[in-house]
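Researcher: Structure prediction, please.
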Amino acid sequence: MENIVQVVAALIWKDNKFMICQRPANKTRAFQWEFVGGKAEKGETREEALIRECKEELDVTVKVGDIFMEVDHQYPDINVHLTLFNSEIAEGEVKMLEHNDIKWITPDEIQNFTFCPADKDILEKIIREYK
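Model: Predicted structure follows.
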């Protein structure tokens, strides 16, 4: 089995909505929706990786909270261990530096979007806990 890639992501709430980001056209799983985040680099803690990714992708500084959920998923091209942290924007205004689109949605709106398959169990948990 190939190496498992450590991926981190942020569950960011504003009022009763959470942030989702649409992958750009030039990446695998183009135009699918996901949580902001990315791969942890060698030597980084998961929290450090998430802070860096949010700065690179949204130009915001996040405060990383506790882990909402962890998921292992095997894509055809990559095996990921995804850690989703409860997070909040500590400073900065969200800018779309990498994604095709960014939306704030309620748990009731999840079914209106096509998410990356690794997020399926996470989305089900959000629906269970926040509806």
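Model: The mean pLDDT is 96.
Researcher: Thanks, that helps.
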